[in-house]
C-alpha cells in the first residue's frame, strides 16, 4: 500500500481562542493516528495574522521556530509537496469556509463537508430551516437583528446565530430578562435566534459516518442536563482554561457526558432523524447533530456541528469507538470516502428554505 501524504490544516485566521482549540485537537489526532507505514503527515499552521507556518510538530516551540510565510508562498509550497488528502482541523468560520475553498481551487481533496455547507451549518437558523423542510422537528423560532423586539413568549432560549460552544446563550424565563440576554448574544454575532424552550427530557448528540456510500448511525452521546438545576448547557460545560493557559475539554468529563446504551429506544429514533438531517443538508463523509429530547421522547433538532478532527476526544471518534470502530479505522473510512466515489446525501435544492424562519425587519 502506498504511503499517503496528508496535510493537517491547523490554526485559525480569526483569533487565538480558535487557534488554541484547533491545535489542541490536531495535536491529539497526530499522536493517535501516526502510522509511518501508511501516512506521511505534514502540518500547515495558520495564525490570526493570516500567516502560514509549516512546523515539524504542534508543540509551541516548533510553531515558534517555523518561519511565517504569505498565502501565495504557502500555495507554492503545498503544490510542490504532492499532497494526497487535506484533513481540516480549523474551527473558525474562515477556516471552515475560505480555507476549504482554497483547496477546492488547488484540486486537493479533503475529508469532511464543503465550504458552502459549512457556512450553512454555522448559521443555526439556516440549518434549522433546511432540516425542518425535510420533516424534522425544530423549536419554533425567529431571527433578530439589532433593534428588533422578540415576539415569542418565554420561556425561550436566546443564542447567537453563528457561534459555537454555547457562547452568548441564555435561557429567558421572563420577558423582563430579554434585554440583558439579547445584549449578551449580540456580543458574539450580528444576528440572534430566539427559539421556544423545549422542556427536558434529555439532550443528545448523534454522529453519522459514510462507509461505501451508506449512512451509518453511531451510538449517541448524552449530556448532563437537569430540568431544575441545569436546563441548558453553557460554555462552562464545554471548555475551560487551565492554569497554564491551555484549553480543557469539560464536555469530555464522564460525569458530564456519556455514551448511551445502544439498546436504549431513543437511539434508533434519533439516528433516523439524524440521517434525514444528513441527507437534507447534503453532507458527505460524516455529520454530527444536537437534539433535545422532550418528555414524550420526541427529538428536536438544535444544530449541526459538521466537523471532526479525528482525535481520540472528538465526539465522532468517541461514538465510533463505542461502536467497535477504532480511531485508525475511522480515519481510513473517511479517507477512502474522500478519495473514492464520494457519494453524498441529496440536498434540498431550494435557496428559499434558508429564509423560512421569521426574520424581524
TrEMBL record:
Alphabetical UniProt keywords: ATP-binding, Ligase, Nucleotide-binding
A GO term, aspect molecular function: metal ion binding
Domain ATP-grasp: 128-336
SUPFAM superfamilies named among the record's database cross-references: Glutathione synthetase ATP-binding domain-like (SSF56059)
InterPro entries: ATP-grasp (IPR011761), ATP_grasp_subdomain_1 (IPR013815), Dala_Dala_lig_C (IPR011095)
Gene3D superfamilies attached to this UniProt entry: 3.40.50.20, ATP-grasp fold, A domain, ATP-grasp fold, B domain
Family to which the UniProt record says this protein belongs: Belongs to the D-alanine--D-alanine ligase family.
UniProt name for this protein: D-alanine--D-alanine ligase
Taxonomic source organism: Desmonostoc muscorum LEGE 12446
Lineage summary: Bacteria, Bacillati, Cyanobacteriota, Cyanophyceae, Nostocales
Amino acid at each position: 500500500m502506498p504511503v499517503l501524504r496528508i496535510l493537517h490544516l491547523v490554526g485559525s485566521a480569526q483569533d487565538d481562542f480558535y487557534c488554541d482549540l484547533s491545535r489542541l485537537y490536531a495535536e491529539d489526532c497526530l499522536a493517535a493516528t501516526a502510522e509511518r507505514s501508511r501516512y506521511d503527515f505534514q502540518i500547515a499552521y495558520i495564525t490570526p495574522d493570516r500567516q502560514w507556518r509549516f512546523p515539524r510538530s504542534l508543540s509551541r516551540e516548533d510553531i515558534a521556530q517555523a518561519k511565517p510565510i504569505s498565502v501565495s508562498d504557502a500555495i507554492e509550497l503545498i503544490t510542490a509537496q504532492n499532497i494526497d488528502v487535506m484533513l481540516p482541523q480549523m474551527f473558525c468560520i474562515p477556516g471552515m469556509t475560505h480555507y476549504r475553498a482554497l483547496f477546492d481551487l488547488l484540486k486537493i481533496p479533503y475529508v469532511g463537508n464543503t465550504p458552502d455547507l459549512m457556512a450553512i451549518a454555522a448559521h443555526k437558523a439556516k440549518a434549522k430551516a433546511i432540516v425542518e423542510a425535510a420533516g424534522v422537528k425544530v423549536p419554533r423560532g425567529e431571527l433578530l437583528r439589532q433593534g428588533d423586539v422578540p415576539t415569542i413568549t418565554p420561556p425561550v432560549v436566546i443564542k447567537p446565530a453563528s457561534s459555537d460552544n454555547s457562547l452568548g446563550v441564555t435561557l429567558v424565563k421572563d420577558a423582563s430578562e430579554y434585554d440583558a440576554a439579547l445584549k449578551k448574544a449580540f456580543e458574539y454575532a450580528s444576528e440572534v435566534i430566539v427559539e421556544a424552550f423545549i422542556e427536558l427530557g434529555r439532550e443528545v448528540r448523534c454522529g453519522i459516518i459514510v462507509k461505501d456510500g451508506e449512512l451509518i448511525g453511531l451510538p449517541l452521546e448524552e449530556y448532563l442536563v437537569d430540568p431544575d438545576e441545569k436546563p441548558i448547557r453553557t460554555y462552562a460545560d464545554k471548555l475551560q482554561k487551565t492554569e497554564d493557559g491551555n484549553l480543557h475539554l469539560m464536555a469530555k468529563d464522564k460525569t458530564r457526558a456519556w455514551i448511551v446504551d445502544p439498546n436504549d429506544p431513543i437511539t434508533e429514533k434519533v439516528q433516523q432523524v439524524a440521517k434525514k438531517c444528513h441527507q437534507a443538508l447534503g453532507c458527505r463523509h460524516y455529520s454530527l447533530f444536537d437534539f433535545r429530547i422532550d418528555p414524550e421522547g420526541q427529538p428536536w433538532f438544535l444544530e449541526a456541528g459538521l466537523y471532526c478532527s479525528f482525535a481520540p476526544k472528538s465526539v465522532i471518534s468517541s461514538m465510533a469507538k463505542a461502536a467497535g470502530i477504532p480511531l485508525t479505522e475511522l480515519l481510513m473510512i473517511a479517507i477512502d470516502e474522500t478519495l473514492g466515489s464520494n457519494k453524498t446525501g441529496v440536498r434540498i435544492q431550494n435557496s428559499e428554505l434558508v429564509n423560512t424562519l421569521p426574520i424581524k425587519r
